[in-house]
Amino acid sequence: MTIVSMVLVAAGVFLLLTGALGLIRFPDFYSRMHAAGKCDTLGSLLILTGLASYQGFDLAAVKLLVVAVFIFITSPTATHAIARAAHRNEIPAWTAEDDA
Amino acid sequence: MARARRLRAFVILFAFWLVFSGYFDPLHVGLGVLCSALVAVFSHDLLFPYPPSSHTARTMWRLAAFIPWLIWQVIGANLHVVYLVFRPSQIRPRVIRFRTKLTHDSSKLLFGNSITLTPGTVTMDIEEDEFFVHAISDKAANDTLSGDMEHRVAHVFSETLGTGSQPSAGEE
Questions:
Q1: Are B146 and B76 members of one domain?
Q2: Which secondary-structure segment (H or E) carries A1?
């Protein structure tokens, strides 16, 4: 069980790191949002399930899983809200042609 | 009917209370019953805005079957974004615009949220039946435009999309 949770937490940390990297490397607001909003969702989901499996099945594990479910619901909602605000303020989206 | 909805709201709220409190002595459980009952009486119509129909149970089951598929999509698409982070030259971001045939608010919500959850695509705006989606690469855009997810969402809510329903795409 320890190995399972280690793998899950390590994968989660890797995804969070990738999200941070993407935040720096991607060219514009919208594509950065992909890196920040998505990798973080699955990353924290993996860390939480990893911690829950390390905990064994008890009340704390159930709480961790409930937190994971809420992140699964709220994170895309927040990403969408930010994207919509940007769209309505007519922030231009970068395309590959801009560099050509 | 209102009484049944109040009861269901109470059961859900009280289950959350038990999980979050972790104390099972009479005082805390009693307080939980009191609080859940008060909230259920005053705001059950927020939790269940529509009266339950004959579809409700079936929708719940299909939703439960939809979620594992969604998680699988999320994982696969997440790897795609990880790949893009290490190969930023591969990204071809663009805004795609299409009309959906979904009619109910809740199915549009689920569709929009599912698009946002799968990495590579973010729902920017929904105006009536028109979706504005920002896609980070060709693959991400094509996955959304293939209509597969839309059909699965329609199936969850027992909606018929009509034949040959491909989301009609347009670039912005």
A1: yes
A2: none
Closest CA to B94 of A95, A17, A69, A67: A95
Separation between Cα atoms, residue B73 and residue B149, nearest integer Å: 10
Mutate to test the interface with B, among A80, A89, A97, A99 (most CBs of B within 10 A): A80
Select the residue from A15, A31, A55, A89 to test the B interface by mutation, using most B Cβ atoms within 10 A.
A31
CA distance B136 to chain A (A): 6
B64: containing domain = 56-171
Same domain, B122 and B68: yes
> How confident is the model at residue B34, as a pLDDT?
93
Neighbours of B54 (CB within 10 A): 6
User: Distance (Å, rounded) from C-alpha B152 to C-alpha B26?
Assistant: 46
Instruction: Tell me the pLDDT tens digit for each residue of B2-35.
Output: 778 888 888 888 988 888 887 888 898 999 999 9
| Among B137, B109, B107, B139, CA closest to B123 | B109
ipTM value, please give it.
0.74
Nearest CA in chain A to B172: A93
B8 in the same domain as B86: no
Q: What is the CATH number of the domain that holds B139?
A: 3.30.70
